[in-house]
Design a protein that fits this description.
- This protein is α+β, with helices and mostly antiparallel strands.
- It folds into two domains: 73 residues, 3-Layer(aba) Sandwich (Glutaredoxin); 120 residues, Glutathione S-transferase Yfyf (Class Pi), Chain A, domain 2 (Up-down Bundle).
């Protein structure tokens, strides 16, 4: 069995969890505290997750490389359209969701303060981000409306695929944002992915 070292909130880690669920691949879950620098460094020489420990004891740590390793039959392939969409939404999405992520059961006081310090240094104070959320929401919602046009019912397809896992892994954090609501179509889309992958966003935090 493989071992997945991850953060529950991390979209790049969630990608792996969704793929494992979809492919019915069991894995051992190891959650690192966000302020644990030594754990990832001991495994791969840098603080970066996800990390997958293969059955032979080797480690790999780029999410798409991990997915390629897990997807033995090469059924899952991302599209450039998907990456273009993620590039469009990522800045607004993280500014909207990060101030709320730190209050989930994943974080203790130490890891919460570490996360906040790291992210505020690059994105601005969380207090300001929350107060100015309407500025980010306008562009974010425009991109979500464009996403809806490409759901047939999955992203540019009648069948669920890797594009959907990459998109869902980023969007899921928005469920945490105070008073934010997805449209019925996008909520239904995300719930279909949840069903197909047996995904539970923060479930592992309670184990």
């Amino acid at each position: 069995m493989v071992t997945l070292y991850h953060y529950p909130h991390c979209p790049f880690c969630i990608r792996i969890r969704l793929v494992c669920g979809f492919l019915n691949l069991p894995y051992k879950s190891v959650i690192f505290d966000y302020d644990d620098e030594s754990g990832p460094v001991e495994l791969i020489g840098k603080k970066m997750l996800p990390i997958l420990k293969k059955e032979n004891g080797e480690y790999i740590n780029e999410s798409l490389d991990i997915i390629k390793y897990l997807d033995k039959d090469s059924k899952l392939n991302p599209s450039q359209d998907c990456f273009n969409f993620l590039n469009e939404i990522s800045s607004d999405l993280f500014k909207l969701s990060m101030p709320y992520m730190i209050y989930t059961p994943e974080f203790n006081e130490s890891s919460r303060n570490y996360f906040r310090s790291k992210k505020e240094s690059s994105r601005g104070s969380f207090k300001d981000l929350v107060e100015n959320s309407s500025l980010f929401l306008e562009n974010f919602n425009t991109n979500l409306k464009n996403l809806e046009l490409n759901l047939n019912p999955f992203f540019n397809s009648e069948n669920i695929g890797l594009d959907d896992f990459l998109i869902a892994s980023h969007l899921w954090g928005m469920y945490l944002v105070h008073e934010f609501q997805f449209s019925e179509k996008i909520h239904t889309y995300l719930q279909e992915i949840k069903k197909a992958t047996d995904f539970n966003y923060l479930g592992e935090c309670w184990k």
